[in-house]
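ok trying this again, last paste got cut off
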Amino acid sequence: MRKDLLLEIAEAVEKAQSQIRKAHETWNFVNNNGGNVLVDDPEIQRPQWQLVKDVLDGKLPLSTLSSDCE
């Protein structure tokens, strides 16, 4: 492997570990100061890309994408 690729991988791992550490610190701060944390299942929402394209191309009205669009 190239040395620069290994360095890139090491930096990415270090960054991920840092982010996880910060999340744990936040979680502990909340719990240690009278708060509580609940883990919810994430709700993934993705647009229907063909509808987005049709709206952008002027084939469908904006309200097609969401009932609160005007």
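PB: full thing came through this time. Residues 1-37 form one domain.
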